[in-house]
Amino acid sequence: MNKVEICGVNTAKLPVLSNVRMRELLIKMRQGDRAAREELVQGNLRLVLSVIQRFNNRGEYVDDLFQVGCIGLMKAIDNFDLSQNVKFSTYAVPMIIGEIRRYLRDNNAIRVSRSLRDIAYKALQVRDRLVNRYAKEPTVGEIAAEMNIPQEEIVFALDAIQEPVSLFEPIYHDGGDPIFVMDQISDERQNDGDWLEGISIREALAKLNERERLILTMRFFEGRTQMEVAEEIGISQAQVSRLEKTALKHMRRFISAGG
Length: 259
Prior knowledge:
This protein is mainly alpha-helical.
C-alpha cells in the first residue's frame, strides 16, 4: 500500500547504508570497483528523495527532479574526500540542491537568454581562477577586466541566474546546531548594536568568558559574519555558531534576572 514509484524505483524498498558500510564502499570505489559505486548510489537515493521534497511546489515533474538529483548525488559520490571529517550527507545535500537549482534555473518559465547565461557562467569561472591566483575574492571590476566586458553586463548576467534563497535555509550541519544562510550575512546599515547598549548589557557581557565576549563584540558591534569571526580567532564556523548561541543565552538569563 505504501509503494510509491519514481522513475520506476519503488521508494518503499530503498536500502539504507550504515556509516561503516558507506566508508567500505567509498574505499572500494576509489580502487575501481564499479559495483561499489552502484551500491553507493542505490543506498543514498533516500537522500535525493528528502531533497526534492523542498522543491515539490515548483510544478515540476517529480521524476525529472529525481533524475537531476541523482546526477548531483553521483557527483557527490565521485568527489567526496574521505580524509575530511565531514558526514557524506553533509557534503552531498548541497551538491544535490545545486544540481536541481541549475536545472530549475535553466528551465525557468522566465527564460534567461543563452548568451546571458554564458556570460554569467564564464564570470563564475573567471572568479574561481582569480581566487586561486590571488587568494582573495575578486571585485566585479576585476572580473570584468579579465573578461574584457562592461561591469554592468556581468552584474546583470549574474543577477539573472540567481534564485531567491530563504535566510533560514540550513547550509551546514555537523550534528550540532545548524548554520543558516542568515548566519553568513552581515548588515552594514544596522549591526544590531543598539540592543547591546546600556549598563545591564555591559554587565552581562562582563559575566562572559573572554572568547564569548570577543565573538559577540565582533558579531553585533562590528557586524562581522560567523565565517569572518571564525577566521579571525582560528576556530570553525560551527564552533562560532554554538559559542554565540550559548553566550546570548547566558546574557538573556542574566538580564532577565535583573543582574
